[in-house]
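Hi! If you just cloned this repository, the fastest way to understand the data is to look at a raw example. We've pasted two of them here, unedited. The first protein comes first, obviously.
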Amino acid sequence: MAEKPLSVKLSGLRILRRGEFPMRGNLMAYQAEYIWIDGVTPTPTLRSKTKIIENGTKALPIWGFDGSSTSQATGEASDCILNPVFSCKDPIRGGKNILVMCEVLVASTGKPHPTNTRALCAETAKRYADQKMIYGIEQEYTMMRLNGRPFGFPELSGEPAPQGPYYCGVGAGRVMGREIVEIHTEMCLEAGLHISGTNAEVMPGQWEFQIGPVGALAVSDELHVARWLLHRIAEDYDVVISLDAKPQKGDWNGAGCHTNFSTKAMRSNYKAIDDACKALGTRINEHVSNYGHDIESRLTGKHETAPYNKFTYGVSNRGASVRIPWQVAKDQKGYAEDRRPNANMDPYLVTQLILETVCGQSAPKKSTSKKAPKKTGAKKAKKK
């Protein structure tokens, strides 16, 4: 895979060097890449467009887009609103340029669009803020050629050697696409995202990066920005980043988005971890049906998964729905890993569901019984 520069030079056009900005009078303008999630089904995708911001602008403005072109509106009422919720440095353009994660609002009302899953996540996070839930999300993905074949597989037909040497491997023939991974990691660090690690995965051409540990909104916003950066970097290599649950049929691992979670109680009490796992087992369908498209193809009970319609948890068990790491069992405190979410999952939905299920079962319940009325008046005389 021949390396290409991140900035493509177009003949006849002057491309600004990184850190160089156009002048408007005495003001310096910069670029803000507005990123949002569209309404495509069954798996929404990322969209973005560039807004020029005048230097000195204190608050990022709302913006609009054509929702009829993103499966979020009809042509007769096509306008939708982009409301900035998170911003960071743009490591590709450099300088003062920024990346802006946005939520989508309905133009006529200003309320969250039906495709806006962040709004409910924000409500739930606020409701259970006292439990201080944090997450670490492991995003797996597969690098694909433009013809739909995974990197590491023969270009037109056939398969490579079976799984075994590729996981955390090193060396030609074992690892494919490391250039993209290295650039992506550096870009996430430069952007200030909470990236905490990367590794080659079990299937050739498959990789993983981790975001966290931070709260529900932060981990979800940052994961989407990290996904956008990955797609954008791979674009310059003519590589497609697939988040499909089962990108290659057969005896090959699928791609997940394991979600590690921990409340304040779990970080000091093993019983709270056990209670959290039991709580997740009471809402199997609610979780699995919102953990990403085609989850049945991945959660089969094989390839380090539990069946999608059953729930199990255990220490150090990668064949369970939820794994408790051995170190956590030893320390009697820490976190648990929900191994069910797909690579194509919506982090706002997944973190919101875990919050609701785990924190909801431990929240103090208000009593519905009526209190005994206070006695009034003089005390009755004791019978002699």
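Ok, and the second one:
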Amino acid sequence: MATVAPSPSPLPSGERVRVRGGFSAGAAGVQPRVRLEATLRQVFGPDYRMGFLFVAPIVVLVLALVAYPFCYAVYLSLTRKYVGMPPVFVGLENYVRLTYDGFFQRAVVNSFIFTFASVGIKLVLGMGMALVLTSKIRFRSFWTGVLLIPWVAPTVVSALNFLWIFDYSLGVLNYLLVHVFGVLSRGVGWLSEPSTAMSSVIGVNVWRGFPFFGISFLAGMKAIPGELYEAAAVDGATVAQRFRYVTLPGIRNILMIVVLLSTIWTFNDFAIVYILTKGGPGGATMVLPVLTYEIAFGAQRLGEAIAVALYMLPPLAFVIIVLSNYMRKGRAR
């Protein structure tokens, strides 16, 4: 009777399974890999390898253009770095010095005043602009284009125009208020007096930024079905009630996104403040971006300047996270 030779096992010798006694050590090593593969497929999908291949170039670009410069900036903020000199590691000394620096504290307060006052006024004016443009007015397209001019005009051009408008001796604003309307007996140094400099800078930022709010809200209001307003009117809702219970919920996500973007842009606004006042008079309009520029390129203390720029990163990140979570919860509802 012929004997049949046992067929070779498809597994390598180190991964063969014993009939009795459970799995061998090699088979035990296979199971974690199988579980990892199943987990990756469940989380990223069956074609996750191809997805990683497509995402890899973007990841490399982000690491090269964002992550590395950011990490290097964090390192420089922990050093005493002057232009043309090698950095000397000092730990948190720059941050501690800034914490007790009165000029820096005033710049922080000015930055929050400048940001929240500008964003709040832009929010109100933008909402009014959107409500007017959704109503039945003549030449609505024309007025929409006119109101967009401040937003599309270059920031430097707008700031230079207002630098002339606010000029004490040659400015058109003082001329109108003193010689044409007779409201004031003499001109006002709008940018040279501490009592009016901050409000003037805020006014320029509002003038330039409120069309962004208005056009964004207008797009959101256009997407609200008209049947909702008709149903609210049939139920006896007033204009204010229709705005509160129909318009605001319909543009809530757009409102949060616009406020978030404008807060970031306004907080980091450099051109308007620097061109108009350069942080003066006497630090009355000194904000963090201008202070960073003055320390970096005026005093040439790069380490301390980067520390100023990074000091307010955690509060801004907190605001972004809170608004993002609020929008996510609103979308889930």
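That's it. A detail worth noticing about the second one: The domain at 93-332 is CATH 1.10.3720.10 (MetI-like fold).
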